[in-house]
Structure formats: structure tokens, C-alpha cells
């Protein structure tokens, strides 16, 4: 159904652990894609390395999105990279505390990250350090909350007669 | 004899930067403007007819699909995907179904794959058809638009035969289709394969080598391959810049690897190239549909239209009425109480505008714990200022329509 390139996965893991050591916190194969969890401090360097390394050549940022983990009180950013030369995709994850939501930007490596980081800021309140124009993109500028966080209710906040838990939501 | 004097330098691109401007004007294009073909705004700083800078405002039809999806069972998310790129809704539906199938590990039968390919390629034709005819409209040629729309209408009739609805289709189910294609649907598909090439050829003759159209589109909104890759372009827009990236070839899904088709590419990434790439893709889509129909004709099996996975396929009605277990299953499926294993998948398909990706995280509940749509429009539209600065306003309109920015997909 789908293909797993074990050889390439191992190459990425060994190259990154050689170069960055402890900054690579975890790696695992999720369904069909290698997923690496990295420390947020070295994120920019890791991305630059993946982009520039002549063997890896992750030249394309497929997508960038945020996530909220209420059980650990953290916010995450998930990057999907694609190497056209090797036809290989990887997923990079990093996270930060909810109280200090700062992660460095990667707009200097991929301009495609510009709006996607703005979207992530808009919905999760993650502040991308060094972003050229970090402001809300889809919601109105006056909004104060970050709607994709799990504590933000889907239904109208002012109503008390609707209880989502009754419907298993 | 008095010679007519033409100041040819007037059209030179660097007129904006070299001459000291007397006065700049601010021009609002949008949020509702006939040239944007959707609800989004461009605030342009103009030096006469030339664009000095532009800033986009988007989000006018943001509907928080990612938030809603976190509160809906999986099959109820299909109607949300309809409303992303509403010009080719079945492509989004199929992409979403395949994502869930990847998470659940459902292997679809070959017949389902081929049926899906027929629908997906019809949707691609419908989408490219709108885009290309609208490029014609924006350059002043309304005729092609009015003529080809009868074929789009016919594609919608095929959808209607397959699933009952036309624009936002909610077509198919997780694992396949809700019903088999009717004889009427087959009749219509075969008729379309016969009638459409003639009309498409006519449309092509109208514009392809048309002097006025070529003057209006060649070298308008050109973009280099490196910039396009850096900006995350995918689909016809990237291929027009000369990069042959197509998800159907790079990561084949739904048995696309069994089909023979060419991936057309352009050279300079201008409006004309984008037009030509879409035009050629329609021919290739027809080729794919013909192959799929031929493959299905050769198959002995004419009845399979879903994967035999009980978690998402409703049991037959007579069993529901007579059998307790079947009734329970029916209830569980309809109420969205199907158990989904925890996991994370990313699946992407070649939608009409580029790589449409679904990043799905399940924590084992009845709803996704996170669902992110990789919307191609949203990612490539951010390059628009770079493409139009220094151009004239009328060229910027053409550039926008040739990029095929769909507001629903832009804002999710």
C-alpha cells in the first residue's frame, strides 16, 4: 500500500545524531513516515542542515502546522519536509512550554513558511522569533484568544445550556 | 512626412524604480471584486497603471474546519473537505478517505481504485476547465467560457448520477463508494469521453495561438523554478516553472502507477505556461479515464465498490432489520462510534491546484485529535506580490486567475 525506505530513514537518523547529538530527542516510524523530535533550540540549525546537506537535500517544505498537548501543557510545531532528489519525506516535531511559546522561524530557509507560521501563530499563539511579519492571518486582528488550543470551546462560549460532553465530544 | 513617435521605454519594467514618482495611489482590489473570483482583498499601491507594492488580506470565508474536525467523527469530516476547493470537491473527498484508510490500514480493491481515478480525473478536468476559461475571460475572451461550461455542467451531471449532488459532492465513503456506478452514469462517462475532446480542441484553437491572447499572457507573471520551490508551489503552477513534480508519479496512490500518462511542464512559469500546462493536463486526464474505463471493462468483477471493512461500510438493509449484530453495527457507524486506532499519518494527493495533504493525528477517540489540511492555494498565494510587483494592474488580474486561487481552499 505504501512504501517505507528504511535505508534513507537510517541515513537521516545517523547523520542528524552525528551532527547534533542530544538535540535529537527521539525518532520513530509512524505509519510510513520517519518522525524526529528535536530540541527547539537547535531547530533552525537542523533545518538548515537538512536543506543544505548534499546527501539529504530536503529542498521542499511541504507543510508546517501547530498542535496543542494539554496533558503536558506544551505547544508543538510539526514540519513535513520532502526531498525531491531522493523522493523521501520526513516529519520534524518540536515543542515549547505554553507559558513561553517561542520557537525560531524558518522563513529565511523557506519563504513558504511565512504564512504558515502566521497561521500557526494565529491559531496556537506560538511566537516565531525572527519572523518578518508575525500577525494574525485568517482571524481578525482584534481577537485575543487562540482558537485551536484545546481549551477553546467549539460552541458559543456564552451559552451554558449546551454541554458537549453529553454528546461524547 | 511626420514620423509618429513612440516612447517604447514607457513599457519597460524598471519604470517604477528609476523614475521619481509624482504620486502613488492606493487601490483596493477586493474583497468582492469581479477580478478576484473569490472573497479576498489586495491593497495595491499604484504608480499610474503599475503596481509598486501589494498586500493581501485573506480570511474572509474562514470557517475553522480544523477546529470543527476535532469534534466530528471521521465520516462527518468529508463534507468539510468538499468546501476546501469547491471547484473539484470529489478530489478532496477521495484524498480524505484515502488518509483515513491509510490510518486504518484498509486496502481498497482494484475496482474501487479505478472508479476513484475516473472521478478524480473528471474533477481535475472540471477544475482546470474553470481556471483556463476564466483566464480567457480576464483577457477579454468570454466565448470559450460560455462554450466549455456546458461540459462542466455535464461533468456535474455525472457526479449527480454517482452520488446525487453536484457542487459539494460528499462523494464516496471510507473504503470506497456508497453505491455502484449506475448504467446511466457509465453511459454519461462514455458520452463525455466522446464529446469533450472536440469541444476542448475548439477552445484550444480559439486561444492557444491567438495573437492577442499570447501578447496578454506570455511573460506575464513569470516565476523562476527556484523561487517557486522555495515558496512551496505545487501542481500546475510549479510544473509551469519547469519542475516535473506530480504526486501521482512521485508517491503513487490509488493504483496510479498502473496508468500511462505524461506530466506536462512549462519553461518560464508565466501565465501562458500555466494555461498550457493545465490544457495539456486535461488531455492527459482524458487519457487516464479512457484507460480506467478500459481496465474496468476487462474486469469480470462488476459489483465491488467498497472495501470489505465493516467499520465504515453499512451492513445491508435486510440484515439490519433481521439481525441484532447488524443493527448494532449500523447504529455505531451512523452515530460515529467507530473505534479508530491511535496513530499519525500524512497523506497527500495531486489535487487540481497541487499537493493537497492531510495530516491526521488520532488519539484513539471517535474524532481526530488534530487534523491539518495542507492547502496548496494558501501556500502559493503568498508569492503573489513577488509575481506582480512592477507589472500593470491588468496583468496582475491575469496572473491571479492563472494561479487559480480558490477562496475556500485559501481560508479553510
- The parts of chain A where pLDDT drops under 50 for at least 5 residues are none
Overall 3D form of chain B: globular
Portion in beta strands of chain A: 25-35%
Large-scale geometry of chain A: globular
Low-confidence stretches of chain B: none
Please identify which CATH superfamily of the largest domain in chain B we are dealing with. Answer: Cytochrome-c3 Hydrogenase, chain B
Order of helices and strands of chain A: HEEHEEEEHE
Q: Based on the coordinates given, report the CATH architecture of chain A.
A: 2-Layer Sandwich
Number of domains of chain B: 2
Structural class of chain B: mainly alpha
Name of the CATH class of chain A:
Alpha Beta
Q: Mind telling me the C-alpha Rg of chain B?
A: 23 Å
Strand order of the largest sheet of chain B: 1-2-3
The biggest beta sheet of chain B, please? 3 strands, antiparallel
Q: How much helix, percentage-wise, in residues of chain B?
A: 40-55%
The ordered string of helix (H) and strand (E) elements of chain B is HEEEHHHHHHHHHHHHHEEEHHHH
**Spatial extent as radius of gyration of chain A:** 18 Å
Number of helices of chain A: 3
What are the key terms here?
heterodimer; A: alpha/beta; Beta Polymerase, domain 2; five-stranded mixed beta sheet; globular; B: 412 residues; Cytochrome-c3 Hydrogenase, chain B; three-stranded antiparallel beta sheet; 6 strands
Overview of this protein structure:
The complex is a heterodimer of chains A (169) and B (412). Chain A has helices at 6-20, 43-52, 113-124; strands at 24-30, 33-38, 60-69, 74-83, 88-97, 102-104, 127-129. Chain A has 169 residues and is α/β, with parallel strands linked by helices. Chain A has a single domain (6-153), classed as NADH:ubiquinone oxidoreductase Nqo5 subunit (Beta Polymerase, domain 2, 2-Layer Sandwich). Chain B is mostly helical and 412 residues long. Chain B is built from 18 helices and six strands. Chain B has helices at 15-18, 65-69, 78-82, 89-104, 110-138, 142-163, 183-207, 211-217, 225-230, 235-240, 247-250, 271-298, 317-322, 324-334, 376-380, 384-388, 393-403, 407-411; strands at 25-29, 41-47, 50-57, 343-351, 354-362, 370-374. In chain B, the strands form two sheets. A three-stranded antiparallel β-sheet of chain B has the order 1-2-3, with no helix packed on it. Chain B has a three-stranded antiparallel β-sheet with strand order 4-5-6. In chain B, a hairpin with a 7-residue loop joins strand 5 and strand 6. In chain B, helix 5 (110-138) runs antiparallel to helix 17 and helix 7 (183-207) runs antiparallel to helix 12. Chain B starts with 14 loop residues before the first helix and ends with a helix. Chain A binds chain B through residues 1-2, 30-33, 35, 59-63, 65, 67, 78, 80, 84, 87, 89, 91, 110-112, 114-116, 119, 123, 137-140, 147-148, 152, 154, 164, 168-169, and chain B through 58-59, 62, 64, 66-68, 70-71, 102-103, 105, 107, 229-232, 243, 245, 250-251, 337, 343-346, 348, 355, 357, 359, 361, 366-367, 370, 372, 374, 378-379, 381-383, 411-412.
Amino acid at each position: 500500500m505504501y512504501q517505507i525506505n528504511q535505508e534513507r530513514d537510517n541515513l537521516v537518523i545517523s547523520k542528524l545524531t552525528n551532527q547534533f547529538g542530544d538535540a535529537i530527542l527521539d525518532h520513530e516510524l509512524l505509519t510510513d513516515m520517519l518522525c524526529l523530535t528535536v530540541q527547539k533550540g537547535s531547530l533552525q540549525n537542523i533545518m538548515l542542515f537538512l536543506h543544505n546537506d548534499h546527501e539529504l537535500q530536503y529542498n521542499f517544505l511541504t507543510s508546517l502546522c501547530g498542535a496543542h498537548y494539554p496533558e503536558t501543557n506544551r505547544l508543538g510545531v510539526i514540519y513535513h519536509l520532502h526531498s525531491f532528489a531522493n523522493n523521501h519525506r520526513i516529519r520534524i516535531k518540536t515543542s515549547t512550554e505554553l507559558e513561553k511559546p517561542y520557537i525560531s522561524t524558518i522563513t529565511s530557509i523557506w519563504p513558504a513558511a511565512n504564512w504558515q507560521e502566521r497561521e500557526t501563530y494565529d491559531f496556537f499563539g506560538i511566537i516565531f522569533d525572527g519572523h518578518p511579519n508575525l500577525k494574525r492571518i485568517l482571524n481578525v486582528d482584534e481577537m485575543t484568544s487562540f482558537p485551536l488550543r484545546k481549551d477553546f470551546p467549539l460552541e458559543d462560549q456564552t451559552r451554558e445550556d449546551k454541554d458537549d460532553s453529553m454528546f461524547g465530544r | 512626412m511626420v514620423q509618429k513617435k513612440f516612447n517604447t521605454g514607457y513599457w519597460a519594467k524598471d519604470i517604477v524604480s528609476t523614475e521619481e514618482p509624482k504620486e502613488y495611489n492606493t487601490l483596493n482590489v477586493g474583497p468582492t471584486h469581479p477580478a478576484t473570483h473569490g472573497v479576498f482583498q489586495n491593497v495595491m499601491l499604484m504608480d499610474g497603471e503599475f503596481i509598486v507594492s501589494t498586500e493581501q488580506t485573506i480570511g474572509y470565508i474562514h470557517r475553522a474546519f480544523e477546529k470543527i474536525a476535532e469534534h466530528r467523527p471521521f465520516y462527518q469530516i468529508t463534507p468539510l473537505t468538499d468546501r476546501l476547493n469547491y471547484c473539484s470537491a470529489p478530489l478532496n473527498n477521495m484524498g480524505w478517505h484515502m488518509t483515513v484508510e491509510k490510518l486504518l490500514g484498509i486496502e481498497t480493491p482494484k475496482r474501487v481504485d479505478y472508479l476513484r481515478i475516473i472521478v478524480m480525473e473528471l474533477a481535475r478536468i472540471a477544475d482546470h476547465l474553470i481556471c483556463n476559461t476564466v483566464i480567457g475571460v480576464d483577457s477579454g475572451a468570454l466565448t470559450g467560457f460560455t462554450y466549455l461550461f456546458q461540459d462542466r455542467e455535464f461533468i456535474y451531471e455525472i457526479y449527480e448520477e454517482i452520488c446525487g449532488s453536484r457542487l459539494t459532492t460528499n462523494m464516496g465513503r471510507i473504503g470506497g463508494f456508497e453505491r455502484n456506478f449506475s448504467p446511466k452514469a457509465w453511459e454519461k462517462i462514455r458520452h463525455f469521453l466522446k464529446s469533450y475532446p472536440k469541444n476542448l480542441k475548439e477552445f484550444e484553437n480559439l486561444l492557444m495561438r491567438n495573437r492577442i491572447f499570447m501578447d496578454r499572457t506570455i511573460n506575464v507573471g513569470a516565476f523562476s523554478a527556484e523561487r517557486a520551490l522555495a515558496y512551496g508551489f505545487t501542481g500546475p503552477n510549479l510544473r509551469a516553472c519547469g519542475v516535473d513534480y506530480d504526486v501521482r508519479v512521485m508517491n503513487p496512490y490509488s493504483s496510479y502507477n498502473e496508468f500511462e500518462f505524461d506530466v506536462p511542464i512549462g519553461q518560464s512559469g508565466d501565465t501562458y505556461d500555466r494555461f498550457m500546462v493545465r490544457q495539456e493536463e486535461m488531455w492527459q486526464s482524458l487519457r487516464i479515464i479512457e484507460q480506467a474505463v478500459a481496465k474496468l471493462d476487462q474486469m469480470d468483477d462488476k459489483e465491488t465498490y467498497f472495501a470489505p471493512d465493516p467499520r465504515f461500510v453499512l451492513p445491508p438493509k435486510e440484515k439490519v432489520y433481521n439481525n441484532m449484530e447488524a443493527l448494532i453495527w449500523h447504529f455505531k457507524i451512523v452515530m460515529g462510534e467507530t473505534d479508530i486506532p491511535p496513530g499519525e499519518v500524512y497523506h497527500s494527493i495531486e489535487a487540481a491546484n497541487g499537493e493537497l495533504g492531510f495530516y491526521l493525528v488520532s488519539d484513539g477517540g471517535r474524532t481526530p485529535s488534530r487534523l491539518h489540511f495542507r492547502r496548496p492555494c494558501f501556500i502559493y498565494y503568498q508569492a503573489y506580490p513577488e509575481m506582480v510587483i512592477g507589472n500593470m494592474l491588468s496583468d496582475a488580474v491575469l496572473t491571479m486567475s492563472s494561479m487559480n486561487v480558490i477562496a475556500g481552499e485559501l481560508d479553510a
